[in-house]
Amino acid sequence: MGAPVLVLFAGMVGFGAMGRTQGFDAWMTGLTSLLMFALPGQVVMLEMFISGSSLLAIGFAVTLTSTRFVTMVVTLFPQLHRRDRNPLLYLWVHMLAMTAWAVSMREFPRMRAQHRLNYFIGLALPCWLISPLGTVLGYYVAGWVPTPVTLALVFINPLFFLLTFTDVKPWGNRLAIGLGCLLGPLFFMLDADSSLLLTGLVGGTAAYLIDRRWLRPRPVEVQA
Amino acid sequence: MNADMQGWGVWLALSAACFGTYICRAAGVKLSGHIHQDSEVFRWLSAVTYAMVAALTVRMILLPLGLLASVPLSLRVLICALSVAVMVSSPQRRLVPALLTGTLLMLAYGVYSASP
Q1: A window 90-149, beta carbon within 8 A of B
Q2: ipTM of the complex
Q3: Within 10 A of B105 (CB to CB), how many other CB atoms are there?
Q4: pTM above 0.95?
């Protein structure tokens, strides 16, 4: 699990550097990592704020990027022991991120149910705690290192998102990414404020419908 | 950047973003055990999210705000293309080497353009 944690940390450092170069406050930048702990959402918030989007649009867009957590939790938490499935999960769920989710999904089947929650906390809690540290580190580092280093740091997150797209498997989602890439700049030129939301809704819905109509393997129909 | 930015606006945006993010996590806990991950609404939401994050990524690379704008567009695209090539050069996906390729090339450009 060394590499995923390193990548998460690098992303947080990069986000801190972005916050610095865009003129955000250090507290504010660090708190987003502590309280949101979801890099795509954090970057969406920062970018939309700088480009002057309305609060409502920011709230909607960030919430949409976070809907992936619903799927992640729904697949992971039913694997916990029944004893552990109590209201405390509302606390632990805050520490969930892609890294801990992917590792837990891989390891849970190999361990007994009663050990899974402890394993998850042992993994997710450090990931969560190092994130604001990485962010604040990136924020201050960006202030005193030479500009080329800062340039590399602010490039980490866009590059990371781009690279993860190559790993997306379902065709519907691949199509959504393609449409997002095409429609994004177009809608941005039409109306910057709502462009991300609009691209997501139009491109995503179109990709979903095309996938459902033509791409998905048809379920075998049983004749009555 | 405007004067408002260090004021209330940014904290309101942060609160809205935190609230929206946590609501999704809590909804996951609430729903776990009741719904199936392959339901149609999840497929739709995941497509919408991918389209949105793709639009954001393209915007940050093609029309960046701030420091990245000082790098010529063609170079930004070239560095991205090289990194993606490293990433897909193995079926296991070389994420760390690909990330290093991109960031180090960006660093190299920064050093090169700063030298007289």
Answers
A1: 90, 93-94, 96, 146-149
A2: 0.90
A3: 19
A4: no
